[in-house]
Amino acid sequence: MLNHTFLHLPGLGPSTERRLWDAGILTWDDFLCAPQPPLASGKAPLWRNELLASQERLAAGDADWFAARLPPAEAWRLFFDFRDHLGCVDIETDGTPQNEVTAVALYDGKNPARTYAHGKNLHDFTVDILTSKVLVTFNGRCFDAPILTSHLGARLPKAHIDLRNVLGGIGIKGGLKKCEEHFGVDRGELAGADGYLAVLLWREYSRHSHPAVLETLLAYNAADVLALPVLLAHAINQQLSRTPFAAAYSLAIPAPGANPHSPDPNVLRRVGHERRSGSGFGWKR
To answer: 107-134 pLDDT, tens per residue?
Structure first.
């Protein structure tokens, strides 16, 4: 899809990109090989140089170069050229002003999701994420990415598909769970669970170190990243419907990946009781 994209060119907006497509300039080569400057724009020489640079940067696999030039709502266009180098990421924190990271999940859409827990293997994430060229998150520009950088020193890809931006661009707003409901994503035993659940689970685990609590926290965290490729495919298809390229690029909607962790039903019931009553919950020793 990048080869059909002109939005990353300086001073070129959506209406001009549409005019190019309508004029039969559907690819970078169409622009570069046109006998006359497309649209007779005075910026055509600048755009030509930028497209030559675009070909070089795409051949070099430089996702960051394009991400720096695309509007956040259009970052979905990176998917087709970098789909084998995605890193879907979600974090949980302790709910304090310091936002200490308690869990991280990483999923490439193909291999089993990997999870990382505070006090266990959290810093392994900073190594594993280095193989990713494009970060995929929900609201990660504002939350996950800055915290991972500041708290863990993670070197994240600058290329970032934030699904909150992409979905917002097609009029779908709200939090991650609301967007999942919109597209019929089923979380099974974790249906209805929200981010505060992770805070309560971490508080309980930090008090008693009960394995079932940590397992439930990691299952919740993993469920967040396993849903991201599903939302991404839906978002891309709806974005494509606004272009001449829907027939060539539309995606099959994947099923959510298998969760490597299993939430404990007793833990979920106890958390629900604590939330309703405002009391702490503990384990029989």
So the answer is: 999 999 999 999 999 999 999 999 999 9
Specify the DSSP element, H or E, that contains 51: helix 44-59
**Per-residue pLDDT tens over the stretch 255-269:** 999 999 999 999 998
Give the model's confidence band at 281: pLDDT under 50 very low, under 70 low, under 90 confident, else very high. very low
Contact present, 189 and 268 (Cβ < 8 Å): yes
Instruction: Give Cβ neighbours of residue 127 (< 8 Å, ≥ 6 apart).
Output: none
End-to-end alpha-carbon separation of the chain, Å?
A: 58
Measured distance CA(43)–CA(30) in Å, rounded: 16
Query: What distance in Å separates the CA atoms of residue 119 and residue 103, rounded to the nearest whole number?
Result: 10
Task: Tell me whether strands 114-117 and 101-107 are parallel, antiparallel or unpaired.
Answer: antiparallel
Instruction: Please identify which residue in the block is written with the tokens 């070089």.
Output: 56
Residue from 229, 213, 257, 258 nearest 117 by CA: 213
pTM recorded for the entire structure? 0.93
